[in-house]
Amino acid sequence: MEPKKNPQKDLNRKSSMYFVFGLLLVLAMVFVALEWKTFDKIQYDDLGLNKVDASIEEDAPIYQLQVTPPPKPLVLPIEIEIIEDDNPIEETEVIAIEVTPDTEVIDPTDLKVIDEPEEVDVNWVTIEEVPVFPGCENETDKRACFNDMMQKHIRKNFRYPELAQEMGLQGRVNTQFIINKDGSIGAILKRGPHELLEAEAARILSKLPKMTPGKQRGSAVKVPFSIPITFKLQ
């Protein structure tokens, strides 16, 4: 007759579960061991517990500094200078005018109105009589003659600045000047790539001769004229 085992008392029945619990416990212990942090204990010594030897005597030398007081400011006596003024004082007398029934009324026709001529600058294109360049008095087309004479004047007086040549400066300078009522050359405006070229353009225009002034409605007027001057290195 074979002996029979009780299945409830079998020790291998729950061995796998115990193995899993044991593995989790070991893993938890390893994790805590790796993450465990310790700090060095800092020891603070109480300075108040230090005892000073009473036999030690220290005599600190005492220095007495003498401060020189600042000098007192000099107080100058106040002198009053009396200047005799022999020039008499001229006082302006203000006369009050009161209007009464006997006050004489001035007739407006007795007053003279002086008309001052208004100064008008006329454009070169719209002016009735253009300024005449010396030598163009007998020409029919005075505008074309003026332009030709301006080109001749520029070529005759043109001088390329040496410093501008050394610096390699070139370009166009836009200029404008005013022909005044008396035919003289007025303000010269210039704008170019460099001051050296602008100065040379202004010098050329300043040598323009006196012209016959332009006229609008029979009266001499100021007329602006614009012309470009080109500087080009060979």
What does this structure look like?
The protein is an alpha+beta fold and 234 residues long. It has helices at 15-35, 142-157, 162-167, 195-206; strands spanning 171-179, 185-191, 215-216, 219-220, 223-231. The strands form two sheets. It has a three-stranded antiparallel sheet with strand order 2-1-5, covered by helices on one side. Strands 3-4 form a two-stranded antiparallel ribbon. The longest helix is centred in the first third of the chain and has 21 residues, at 15-35. The protein is elongated, with a radius of gyration of 56 Å.
Quick description:
By secondary structure, this protein is an alpha+beta fold. 24% of the residues lie in helices and 12% in strands. The protein has helices spanning 15-35, 142-157, 162-167, 195-206; strands spanning 171-179, 185-191, 215-216, 219-220, 223-231.
Instruction: Label the overall shape.
Output: elongated
Helix content: 10-25%
CATH uppermost class of the domain at 142-231? Alpha Beta
Strand coverage percent: 5-15%
Q: What kind of sheet is the major sheet?
A: 3 strands, antiparallel
Number of strands: 5
CATH topology annotation of the domain at 142-231: TolA/TonB C-terminal domain
Tally the helices. 4
- State the low-pLDDT regions, or none: none
Distance between the ends: 136 Å
Based on secondary structure, the structural category is: alpha+beta
Mean pLDDT across the residues is 77
Indicate the radius of gyration in whole angstroms: 56 Å
Order of helices and strands: HHHEEHEEE
Output the strand order for the largest sheet: 2-1-5
CATH architecture of the domain at 142-231: 2-Layer Sandwich
